[in-house]
Amino acid sequence: MMAHSPLHQFQIMKLIPLKIAGIDISFTNSSLWMVITAITLCLFGHLATRKASIVPNRLQYTHEAIYTFVADMLKTNLGREGRTFFPFVFPLFLFILMANLVGLLPYSFTVTSHIIVTFALAMIVFLGATTLGIIKHKSGFLRTFFPKGAPIFVAPILIPIEIISFLMRPVSLSVRLFANMVAGHVLIKIFAGFVTALLKSPFALFGIVPLLLNSVMLGFEVMVAVLQAYVFTILTCIYINDALSLH
User: Which pTM was predicted?
Assistant: First the structure.
């Protein structure tokens, strides 16, 4: 893959090659930026709460605003039961949000632009919600695939449709985040390429047009980064609620 390709930014590179029992567990640029994301979140939480006061500073206010936002999201979708799942949903939202935003920095790497990362997060949510549903309802969890009150004659059609729909949840959840991150970064890279090409040509003045478009795209990508973190989290809340209430 050529270095100027818009897809070059998504290439996985081994930083520390490592194999154990024939299994490749090398430390890659993706691993590095996940670690950076986690460390950044830890520092953010520490600095925001280190000198907490009744009148918050900007960092504390931002942390409290995010905390309240996620807490309200859980309360809206799960009621009082939502408090139980806050320790899981809150860091999930923060990790996806920070990974999306960090990926917009120059020379960084967007870990959520890889389907293996988003699918792993989606599977954690899917398996966790399914396990909760089975623990709470036991065999009654099977009503998920054939709602109470549905006519028995539609069972041969309804049950397969519900099973496929249920199993597609982690796929749709992961692809939505992955596709949005890839599409936005590719567009930014393409417009940046136009700017570079025009600046090296006799028509350098016209480079301002793609430069302005790229600036607009970058602002749009920030909104997409926040929105996709929200969408992933709100769907997580919905899946947990569905598992607990069998909606």
Answer: 0.87
